[in-house]
Amino acid sequence: MLMLLLLLVPALVAGGTECNPRDFGADSVVCVCTASDCDLQGVIPVPADGLFTTVTSSRDGLRFAQNTSSLESTPNPDADVSVVLDHSTDYQTIFGFGGAFTDSTGINIASLPLKAQDFLIKWVDMSYFSPDGIEYNLCRLPMAGTDYSIRTYSYDDVEGDVDLVNFNLTIEDYQYKLPYIKQAQQVANKELLLFGSPFSPPAWMKESGSFFGSGSILKEMWEPYANYFIKFLQAYEAEGAPMWGVTMQDEPLAGLKDSSWNNCYWSPEDTRDWIKTHLGPAMKSAGYGDVKLMIHDQTRDTIPWYVIPCLDDAECNQYVDGTALHWYADLLTSPDSMDETHNLYPGKFMLYTESCDGWNAEPDEKVILGSWVRAENYAFNILEDLNHWATGWVDWNMALNMSGGPNWASKAADSPIIINTDAGEFYKQPMFYALGHFSKFIPPGSIRMPSTVSGPGSGDVIAVAVHDIPSLTNVAIILNRGDSSKSVSVDSGSGTEFMNFVMPAKSITTVLF
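^ Glucosylceramidase, sequence as received from the core. Prediction below:
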């Protein structure tokens, strides 16, 4: 199938292809992809000196609309919003953006009608990973099952197998994860950085004997579980999908209560002790000392207190590269906690590793086809996180069904791509394009620089700016959350070159120069 898919991949699309819009009654539209037609964003080059390009998506239906204009020597004196970039200071380096290769993503892609499946799979991969698409480069990989599976499982479900002689990848890896990872690697121009995340150890390693509920791993299982990580790293490396990183545990505080999905409770102190006595040394000894090890993998309302015991301990600190974050409490929590964590440990990165919308909605609103509100939620959160030291942002499921599943624990949610198996088509949500304004235009290795937003219309506007030194590329991404258009003037940082343009109401604009 892989060779067939590669033969089906079209040549790079200069300027992109247009969205086929459909209105499902929300505040915006989806773009419909069928076996014969799907919009692609195309290769969008940085303009020549003296020019700038704007790329805009909006509630009213714009999807990556492009315009190239000349830089001006003066700002628009009547601008509603002024954005000033500052090249004199460098902040964090960006790793990238992406989504997760969950079981549900693979199951939904594989559920498409056989007659159209090869073409539709091609469109999914091209849309997410190719230079014609939104160019994801950083993707999460669940280590065995999650709630976005159709069953609970680990890589060794043989009771008492402390030597892990029965460890093996499962049918889910070979049918729903690895094929799509390999296809993504083939169509991408950027290196695909994968990181693994366990949601639960094997149930027999836990106090509860269950994948869900509550409770911790048995301390006598600390060594076998460290070896379990090594076997996972070895297995995926052998399949041609080596890991860039791992998180120690998805939401380690979820197991404090009787959670209905795969979990395991890790206190900060146990996290510290397991890493310094077992996991860190095991990874180093097995030749995986360069694999990024992330702790926390939880909402930002629990930093910095959760990471302090780990990072204040020199033995643990030497093995830890960064802090992983989820967005689910961000509306209730100030990003100041990120600044505080960065200031305490400036040598450790912070990365958003899981986000999705609709997770807390009513059952009939888990998926809202055409929701601009959710696209705006994504864009605002990414902008805020980048401005507070995040090194990237990774979405949750890349493709779900019309009900936001499958999910064995009945925890449906929304996704940037929704697959309609009955109709043999899929829908690119506004969230897809919101993510693309970052993933396509901020190359890995870009460095955030200061940017300030002011002016009479600035209350509805948030922005971030980066520069990519090797390519001499500068990027500003601006979100207008207001219900009216805004005239915008961007100072390139020189004080002598300005980009003057108008942003539509409820829109995202990426500026390239």
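The domain at 96-439 is CATH 3.20.20.80 (TIM Barrel).
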